[in-house]
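U., I forgot to send this yesterday:
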Amino acid sequence: MAVELGDLKAFIVVARAGGFRDGARSGGGSASGLSDAVRRLETQLGVRLLNRTTRSVSLTEAGQGLLDRLAPAISEMEAALDVVNGFRERPAGVLKLNVPVSAARLVLPAIIPDFAAAYPDIRLELVVEDSFVDVLASGCDAGIRYDERLAQDMIAVPIGPRVQRFATAASSAYLDRRGRPQHPRDLMDHACIRNRFSSGTMPDWEYERGDEAVMVDVPASMVVQTGGGVDLGVACAVAGSGIIALFEDWLTPYFETGELEPVLQDWWPAFSGPFLYYPGRRLVPAPLRAFIDFIKARPDGRGANP
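Result:
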């Protein structure tokens, strides 16, 4: 049975995006063009691949089976064709990265503008989320994660600061009113602004000083979604609603302006910085190879090995 490769790719784009409009945004083209391509494919195969309603698009059982088998094959074919890209004077194409909000805010602003200037023929697409999806299943070339989130079959390259810290902070007005904690366990008597991952996990606050490590399940006066809700949490902390724990780099500007005051600074835990990671058992597309080489060669050491 002969089917058009373009129709297969359109199906993958729509299935991954969860809709024709979102598919058009992520993959280019138009929603109507994607719809026509998927309809042609369904007609040729004689089976419905997508359930469509006015509000959503979902895979049928046949569609899920086709996506599971087809997506890896398409990815490998695109990677094989990309070998030709290596013979160009300047790499070209699309580089799609899946990154957490923290990396998008704290790491990439120091890297992406310079990379874009150095490689104008590469189009960057950044998927910013904190759901820790499979980069290949999501259609991305690579992702940024911390070491505890890295899969064993991935290649990891250091990117960004090699050591980071979690900081705790509150407004001076709040601390004047409620007191300044002297030990992490004192937080049990305070209003705390906590983060919840999209998975539902709400991690305890961790502290360490010398040989002593403490994990505190602090009382939550407010819970915000990790990622999109963090700025709201910070704004509430600035307004005096409670104590917040977040990346030190995220809170540093507020320390500098005096809007927030460090809390338990001697106890802030350090952890290793993020990594760019990508599958080790496939050809590396030329845009991704250019990005890897770029961060490794950065003179400020943000891409150098620790």
